[in-house]
Amino acid sequence: MKQLIEAIVLPLVDYPEEVRIETDEHANRIVYKLFVHPEDRGKVIGKQGRVAKAIRTIVYSAAGGHHQKKTYVDILD
Fold this sequence. Notes:
- By secondary structure, the chain is an alpha+beta fold.
- 39% of the residues lie in helices and 26% in strands.
- It has helices at 2-9, 41-45, 50-66; strands at 20-25, 29-35, 70-76.
- A hairpin with a 3-residue loop joins strand 1 and strand 2 (29-35).
- Keywords: Cell shape, Cell wall biogenesis/degradation, Chaperone, Cytoplasm, RNA-binding.
- Forms a complex with KhpB.
- Pfam families: KH_KhpA-B.
- Belongs to the KhpA RNA-binding protein family.
């Protein structure tokens, strides 16, 4: 999933070297924490959150068949 998120996010940002993804796995869920440069946060979130919603939709559908756990994507500083 990390590679999928990177493949989606890296072309969107101006500072690709500062993109970092951490995984926080629990018994019934997996949280992917996406860290980007503060100037890139708006590009990753998009107008009215459309880009973030699209990223989450792609990751959720890909993870649905792969994991038996609930998957979340958080965009952080």
